[in-house]
């Protein structure tokens, strides 16, 4: 399974949806709350060029927002 990191904020609906999707498909992930962790926020901006969340890193491939089709392909889910 690819390494997955999701950059989130507590109030983000799409972040919640992405995490639910991961749980439903047994995808292990590391969550980084960019409101509490400024280093994670800088890391996210370096990777994505933006402050919007969620930003999802799948083995170095960046997904902006909750793009189910792209995540399904990157995670090799059916």
Q: What is the domain tally?
A: 1
How would a crystallographer describe the biggest sheet? 4 strands, mixed
SSE ordering = EHEHEEH
Shape: globular
Going by helix content, strand content and strand pairing, the class is alpha+beta
What fold name stands as the CATH topology? Glutaredoxin
Q: What is the CATH architecture assignment?
A: 3-Layer(aba) Sandwich
At the fourth level of CATH, the homologous superfamily is Glutaredoxin
Rounded Rg: 11 Å
Describe the structure.
The protein is of the alpha+beta class. The chain has one domain: Glutaredoxin (3-Layer(aba) Sandwich). The protein is 38% helix and 22% strand. The protein contains three helices and four strands; from the N terminus they run βαβαββα. Strands 2-1-3-4 form a four-stranded mixed beta sheet, with helices on both faces. It is globular and about 35 Å long. The relative contact order is 0.25. The mean pLDDT is 96.
List the helices and strands and how they pair.
Elements: E1 4-8, H1 13-24, E2 30-33, H2 38-48, E3 55-58, E4 61-64, H3 68-74
Parallel strand pairs: 1-2
Antiparallel strand pairs: 1-3, 3-4
Question: Quick summary of this structure?
Answer:
By secondary structure, this protein is of the alpha+beta class. Helices cover 38% and strands 22% of the residues.
Task: Spell out the key features of this protein.
single chain, 78 residues, alpha+beta, Glutaredoxin, four-stranded mixed sheet, 3 helices, globular, NrdH-redoxin
């Amino acid at each position: 399974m690819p390494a997955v990191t999701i950059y989130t904020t507590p109030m983000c609906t799409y972040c919640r949806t992405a995490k639910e999707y991961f749980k439903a498909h047994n995808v292990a992930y590391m969550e980084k709350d960019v409101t509490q962790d400024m280093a994670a926020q800088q890391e996210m901006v370096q990777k994505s060029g933006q402050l919007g969340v969620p930003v999802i890193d799948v083995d170095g491939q960046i997904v902006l927002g909750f793009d189910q089709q792209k995540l399904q392909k990157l995670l090799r889910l059916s």
